[in-house]
Amino acid sequence: MTVLDIQISVEEGDWPSEDELQSFSARILEAAADFLLREEKQPFPPDVSEVSLVFTDDASMRAINAEWRNQDKPTNVLSFPAFPVTPGKMPGPMLGDIIVAYETLNREAAEMAKPFEAHLTHLLVHGFLHLFGYDHLQDDEAERMEGLETRILARLGLSDPYGDRSPD
């Protein structure tokens, strides 16, 4: 099992405490890493893999999204791999950054009638997969990534966020 060094930064938003987010995020990301390692045979660096989590608000997310993706609007989650990586290939010891916006996450959870924690879990898994090179720009890529998300979330006791596929 790989060891994840999860660095947490709460910048803006009505987030739980850093300790709560650390514990919550560690459980989610360690489950995702274990799934990738065991089920997908994803190689990991031999010692420690570092991931940075930034919990912020819509205003900050909007600025980041505008700067890096030329989209002047907030989004729920953004991921920035530390190094270019292809799914199934060895990432560097620094996996990258995952940034989550509180208001967008909270609004989406309410619209879907899902608990905040369930939607946050999905977004963390989604962002984590991006750090390994998974994407959803093309239909075949989206199908693969969404299938992995669904299977990881099922192991965490959550239903399919896309509502139309079986966990296995």
Automatic annotation (TrEMBL):
GO molecular function list: metalloendopeptidase activity; RNA endonuclease activity; zinc ion binding
InterPro entries: MetalPrtase_cat_dom_sf_prd, YbeY, YbeY_CS
Binding site for Zn(2+): 126, 130, 136
A Gene Ontology BP annotation from the UniProt entry: rRNA processing
Places the protein is found: Cytoplasm
GO cellular component: cytoplasm
Keyword set, alphabetical order: Cytoplasm, Endonuclease, Hydrolase, Metal-binding, Nuclease, Ribosome biogenesis, rRNA processing, Zinc
Cofactor note: Binds 1 zinc ion.
Cofactor(s) recorded in Swiss-Prot or TrEMBL: Zn(2+)
E.C. number: 3.1.-.-
UniProt xrefs under Pfam families: YbeY (PF02130)
Family that this chain belongs to: Belongs to the endoribonuclease YbeY family.
PANTHER family xrefs: ENDORIBONUCLEASE YBEY, CHLOROPLASTIC (PTHR46986:SF1)
Function description: Single strand-specific metallo-endoribonuclease involved in late-stage 70S ribosome quality control and in maturation of the 3' terminus of the 16S rRNA.
Protein's name in the database: Endoribonuclease YbeY
Species, as recorded: Sinorhizobium mexicanum
